Amino acid sequence: MRRLFSELIGIQVVDSHTTHQCGVVRDLIIDPEKGTVLAFIVGKNKIVAPMDVERIGNALFINSSDHITSIEDILRVDEVHKRNIQILGAQVRGIETGMYLGRVFNYSIDTTHMRLTAIYVAKLFLFFKYEEKNIAAKNIVEIKANEIRVKELLKTKEEAVASSSAVAI
Fold it and tell me: DSSP secondary structure string, 92-120?
């Protein structure tokens, strides 16, 4: 099942055996090389690994509250966290032309496989979004600290105009 980042932030983390609330999802850590969810941040330097998540519904249900660990306990999570790679708010550019496509305002993950499925990009003017695009994760080439490089579907503005004004005979 696909879930948006904006839907996951703020949901409760619940121990499925005791139904005790253990925290609140504050952020996600995404592996920039594989596009997988490495962890759900549930507090200051506290995380839940995806393998400890039983299901995601109106809350994030985990096997036990004992599975909430420190970020430093899992090497790969700690490494990515220290690199400060943020998907949300990152600039998106085409890999071939370097054309600016906008900033990520949301993204979705597959909660079954815990993988990034798409990023939602828009250009901003003041607080208004325009030229919104949905970019599938398969088109992401590289994720850096504040920039995401993607395969371009239309390489230039001229090609976009030419394809929209083409007449079928």
Answer: EEETTT--EEEEEEEEEEETTTTEEEEEE
